[in-house]
Design brief:
Length: 254
Amino acid sequence: MFESLLTAVDLTGQEFLILTVIVVVAGIVRGFSGFALSAIVMASAVIILPPVQLIPICWWLEMTASLLMARGGWQEADRGVVLGLVIGSTLGVPFGVLLTTSISVEASQLIVLILIIVLAITQLAKIRLAFLATKLGLYGSGFAAGVVTGLASIGGMIIAIYVLSQDASAAKMRAALVLFLFISSLTTVITLIWFGVMNGTAVARGLSLAIPTTIGVMIGQRLFIPRFAAYYRPLCLSLLCALAGTALVRTQFA
């Protein structure tokens, strides 16, 4: 049975087990922080699969996590803001997918890892971009998130920067990210199918990794303690920098 699974996902046993561990850890982080699932998968698994193959896997993982967490996001998030971000994201995703399917694996790996590091450092430094707190900033952030989602499936990190510019509470930021990731996933899949990125192998990989992701998210939700909320984001971002930095060294200097 396991051999049949490996054939369906086109992975070796070792690769599949490593990916399983990665998605459990990423699910835990998503469960208590509300974001970073795809970023952690990208930063860790890019040495196993190229970004263009990880993007549809991340779609399934994000959808799985979002279905588990969307209710709280809908209740607490600013739905008007989330809608504006989703509109911008929907327009931006095709540009990102077009880019990632047009460049070499090496180039896409480099771009993805540098993006993760830069975005993580930007948030760790608590850089607030005042112009984002405008109507143009709203739709522009959504568009940029869409491009990055199509390129590396890490649009949530762009949205985190946008929310940071609003001086929102940790709970509100978490809720906005959760709701954005859920709704934008519904629009993103159309582009992935259109470009042929979401194929049979991608579906098999995504579905097979959905269960360990669910386990991780449920563990992460139980680990979420409101009084420690201020520490979750720095912890996750530091982890991302370490993972992406390690992967960058391995892919560029191995």
